[in-house]
Amino acid sequence: MYQSEFTDFINRYLEQNPQVAAERLERRAVWWDKPVDATFEQGATEAKVKQNGYYYQGYVYSGAPKKKVDL
């Protein structure tokens, strides 16, 4: 199986420095491995604003005058 030079380098580096894997897990826990607050998640989901299918089209409000487009 082909492995790039970079993959070989990383594999050799991790073999020579096993503490890097442990440090990575510790640092990941600081930012990502957190308990989830279910009530906050529910509130955030309910507070989302619906987007149009095409992002750059802009919002269409009911009752607003229709734009005339000349091509």
TrEMBL record:
<protein>
    <submittedName>
        <fullName>DUF3460 family protein</fullName>
    </submittedName>
</protein>
<dbReference type="Pfam" id="PF11943">
    <property type="entry name" value="DUF3460"/>
</dbReference>
<dbReference type="InterPro" id="IPR021853">
    <property type="entry name" value="DUF3460"/>
</dbReference>
